[in-house]
Amino acid sequence: MQKTPALQITNLSKHFGGAVALDGVSLSVSRGEVHGLLGQNGSGKSTLIKILSGFLAPQPGAKLVLYDREIPLPLTPGQFRELGMAFVHQHLGLIPSLSVTENICLSDFATQNQWRIDWRGETQRIRRILTEYELAIDPTTKIQDLPQVDRCLVAIVRAMEEVRSAQEAHGGEGILVLDEPTPFLPRIGVEKLFNLVRQLVKKDASVIFVSHDVDEIMEITDRATVLRDGQVAGVIETDRTSPEDFIELIIGKRVTAYQATHRKKPADRSAVIVSDLSGATCRNVSFDLSGGEVLGLTGLIGSGFDEIPSLIYGARTALDGMLSIDGKETMLREMNPEKAIGLGMAFLPADRIGASGAGTLPISDNMTLPSMANFARKLGLDRLGMRQWAQETGAAHDVRPNNPDLNLENLSGGNQQKVLLAKWLELKPRLLLLDEPTQGVDVGARQQVFAAIDQAAREGASIVCASTDAEQLAQICDRVIVFAQGRPVIELTGERLTKEEIVFQCYSALSVDQTALVE
Ligand SMILES: Nc1ncnc2c1ncn2[C@@H]1O[C@H](COP(=O)(O)OP(=O)(O)OP(=O)(O)O)[C@@H](O)[C@H]1O
Description:
Helices cover about 35% and strands about 25% of the residues.
């Protein structure tokens, strides 16, 4: 039996100048339902969510009904709280210089009239809440000092608490909107999130869940609305739909699983040698790569694999270690990004806008940043040349829309990633360091990113890819090293290089005897 709707949107459109991001979209989410919102990068999902949060105003003519009550649009900033909605946005919306407690309490202070804040009491309350959620996060830590995974969990806890208090105030009513919350979460975090989501909907709240991960969609949603080019391509009931059908509806055609083509027997592994690398978590890590080889690094969060690309590139300072590229040795303690680029390295960090690109600068500036010297003229920069180059590169990497004047932050998440990867690939790096290269990238664009990585490998680059995405590693890597407690524990190649085996090894690595480490 169809449950009564919690949220109904009809005729929702949004234009940015001449570009149409949403075109007459309808969305209906039932009480107690987890509703997926799917679509390729740039299909309009975040725009819809930003309208629901009052951040953007839609074109006139749209209608929003919440629990049988018509709510005039546009919403005013912060009005979503009174309406019982809570959001986890792609960029999390946390204030880095404030503590976990301050960030979680901010929304309470926005809605309550308090003349004095009992910070000690609040900190104890938040500590209790974090314990309830089984999270080992110190509430006094500043957000900027937390790893990305914990930041994400804090944003989720904050939204969960907002929905919980909305439910208490409105007899079960409450809508949680999760805009791609999982790319930064390890599997165990995803399971935790899904359990919380199930508890919420059991109590009649509703959840809108945006994700590019078809397995996750299959696991957690009851129904899903698929957007394509700003319009509804279809509404589907999850348990009547196969993953292949989901993908076909999302991208408009059937795709077959990607398989890298550059695979070959790495003959000489002396192109890149990392020896005795130590950082905050990883200890005495050594590995080597041949030219044209893609090496995956993985493990559970906290196992230390994820800091390796930034330590090699000098974005974080290594405690110890040596890097050799084509026989040229450098102490990793002394590495910095400028030296790294000089040695032919390129680094795509996981934190897209924070560490990889400048959101408020145009695409053309972002793309030409590492190669700016090529555009320097006596009287300044050759802006026309930069723009043209950015447009050609954008076309080659299928950036949509391919408008070099658009600020990077105005591209959809996946298209931002394409821009940032393109800027490095065009430099033809000797050593390409990737940290979660396809998070937030849709199933179609994911294949394009894989193909670009494959092409770089075929042209002779050595590639290190740190990721928790086992499927991605199995598809693009020649070898994968699994980490536990800061050390490599097993290396997978050939027949053993499968998604299932990688996941299995990540979890069994937890109990591994530390004397049996891979050297
Ligand atoms: N402020 C803006 N100015 C101009 N164009 C914008 C702006 N915000 C979004 N767009 C455009 O609107 C379209 C929809 O973007 P949106 O972020 O909603 O996509 P999405 O489905 O959330 O994609 P992703 O999965 O990559 O996050 C894109 O073409 C994007 O470039």
